[in-house]
Design a protein that fits this description.
Blueprint (H helix, E strand, L loop, with lengths): L30 E6 L5 E3 L1 H8 L9 E8 L5 H21 L28 E3 L4 E4 L5 E9 L9 H14 L2 E7 L4 H5 L2 H13 L7 E9 L10 H12 L8 H13 E8 L5 H4 L13 H15 L8 E2 L2 E2 L2 H14 L8 H31 L8 H20 L7 H27 L6 H34 L3 H5 L1 H28 L3
Parallel strand pairs: 3-6, 3-7, 7-8, 8-9
Antiparallel strand pairs: 1-2, 1-4, 4-6, 5-6, 10-11
Helix pairs in contact: 1-10, 2-9, 5-7, 5-11, 10-11, 11-12, 11-13, 12-13, 12-14, 12-16, 13-14, 14-16
Length: about 525
């Protein structure tokens, strides 16, 4: 299912920059990031995903993910090529400060592979081989990533596989385009019930993040009633209102999806599109030439695509209330794929627990960074630091880090949260060993400094080290049992403990010396 015969790194070679993308687009191909596994599940092609997102030129850019999902053989890949053409033309227009021209007579659509006919063409999940850098209305550069998904409910995929693909694309995308033909049937709405259920859970346990999903767009292809509802967004809005209308005689499950769908998405819209023409839909010889499109279809595409992708419309992906960068998206994909094994139907709790784990991972990273920054400030300088002061700094910044972790929202699996908390403690203690080595390598200047450093190391190392590790471990225990205040007051307590140990170790030789002088 995977083929990487093309050069994925072409646009990001040292002699190129992201400004050269439109000129080198012919070197780029889609990359399959999710492929069926022998166990009827899916496996993530992490290397392929990293080849798209992990380059240093874009790794910290906020990412906009546009996904198209829906039934198989309904023109999803064909639709994405319009998006691809528009984005490259928009980028070229921005860089040259020239008027935007796209979908001209001499234009040929290409990019994502598609074909006419009855056999499915896309397997798994594919993304375009590079994010396209677009300057948003705010002036910030976004990395726009296009995602193509396997058509659902064909004659070769299980129900679990279809729902997994649909769930994954909806969760990770900023804009999920739900591609349907002629009408929005009831089964199309029922496929959204998983997200309604998840939305109900998320709004209960994680209200602070707002609605769990961003934009849902129904794209109704080959619409046959333009006299009643005109083509485009305006007619689509009226049509969608009719489809989502709640009536007393509807069964509960039908009413539930309609009533709560708007609570799960920030924005829901609908576009009605005409038939693209015989040459496009029914002839194998069509090669993407715009001149072969029906004029009315072409005009509607020139309205719909900019409405979704213009610089004012682009919004980065948000997960758990925070914008997602290209670097983070790789981690998020891994967690979501792990939560959907493909052998069971995805459930709302799986999504909730995956999001909870992502929050904990993010909080643990922030906590570790805070610890390292604090220790860097405490250990700055070329002179060796007394070990007592080093361990005091470790306790202070270690507990600060653990309290940062504790402030992250608490929902989902407590077991996952505690496991990551223990991992954070291990990481902090490992960092302490690194700071000890760095400190030992520094210069010792002056006799007093030498005596202090050596004395601390020889006399206090064991006692202070045990106290430091014990204090941080005790703080972890208080956080696991929910006693946050104990963690907060642990800093002065730990320093008092250090003082007692220091007095004892310093005084003991003098006491022993006096005892030795007593008359026999």
């Amino acid at each position: 299912y995977m083929s990487f015969e093309f050069d994925l790194t072409a646009p990001f070679l040292p002699e190129f920059s992201t400004k050269d993308q439109s000129e080198h687009r012919h070197k780029i191909r889609p990359v399959q990031i999710l492929a069926p596994s022998p166990s009827n599940g899916f496996r993530l092609n992490e290397g392929g995903l990293s080849s798209v997102l992990a380059h240093s030129a874009i790794v910290n850019k906020k990412v906009v993910i546009i996904s198209v999902a829906g039934a198989f053989r309904k023109g999803k890949s064909f639709l994405l090529n319009f998006f691809l053409e528009y984005l490259y033309c928009l980028q070229k227009s921005q860089q040259s400060d020239a008027p935007l021209e796209w979908l001209t007579d001499d234009c040929q659509l290409h990019g994502f592979h598609w074909r006419a006919g009855a056999k499915r063409d896309t397997v798994g999940v594919w993304v375009w081989g590079e994010p396209i850098m677009i300057e948003a209305a705010s002036g910030e550069m976004y990395a726009v990533l296009l995602m193509d998904t396997q058509g659902t409910f064909d004659n070769t995929s299980t129900y679990q596989q279809c729902l997994t693909i649909f769930a994954l694309s909806t969760i990770v995308s900023c804009v999920q385009i739900y591609n349907v033909v002629d009408n929005i049937q009831e089964d199309a709405l029922q496929h959204l019930s998983l997200f309604v259920e998840y939305g109900r859970l998320a709004m209960t346990e994680a209200q602070r993040f707002g609605k769990p999903f961003q934009t849902l767009v129904f794209c109704v292809r080959d619409f046959r009633n333009p006299e009643e509802y005109g083509y485009g967004e305006e007619g689509g809005s009226k049509f969608l209102q009719q489809v989502l209308k709640v009536t007393p005689d509807q069964p509960e499950e039908l009413r539930s999806v309609r009533e709560q769908l708007s609570d799960c998405f920030d924005h829901i819209s609908c576009f009605l599109l005409p038939y693209p023409g015989y040459r496009v839909a029914e002839r194998q010889s069509f090669r993407g030439h715009v001149k072969d499109l029906r004029p009315i279809f072409r005009e509607e595409m020139k309205k719909m695509v900019p409405a979704l992708l213009n610089p004012h419309a682009l919004q980065p992906k948000y997960i758990n209330g925070k914008p997602v960068t290209c670097r983070k998206l790789v981690q998020y994909f891994k967690e979501y794929v792990n939560s959907f094994d493909g052998n069971t139907v995805p459930v709302a709790n799986s999504i909730l627990n995956a999001n909870a784990k992502l929050i904990c991972i993010e909080a643990a990273h922030e906590a570790k960074v805070a610890y390292c920054r604090g220790m860097d400030r405490s250990t700055v300088g070329s002179r060796m630091m007394p070990e007592k002061r080093l361990l005091e700094a470790h306790i202070k910044h270690g507990i600060t880090a653990l309290n940062i972790y504790d402030k992250c929202p608490k929902f989902g699996s407590a077991e996952t949260r505690n496991r990551l908390l223990e991992k954070l403690q291990e990481d902090i203690n490992a960092e302490l060993e690194r700071y000890k080595r760095l400190n030992a390598a520094k210069k010792v200047t002056g006799c007093a400094s030498a005596l202090t450093a050596c004395g601390d190391s020889a006399l206090l190392g064991v006692g202070l080290g045990a106290a430091a590790s014990g204090t941080v471990a005790a703080t972890v225990l208080t956080l696991q049992t929910g006693l946050v205040s104990a963690g907060i007051v642990a800093i002065p307590i730990s320093l008092a403990t250090l003082l007692i140990i220091w007095i004892y170790v310093y005084s003991k030789p003098h006491i022993d010396h006096c005892m030795d002088k007593e008359p026999q």
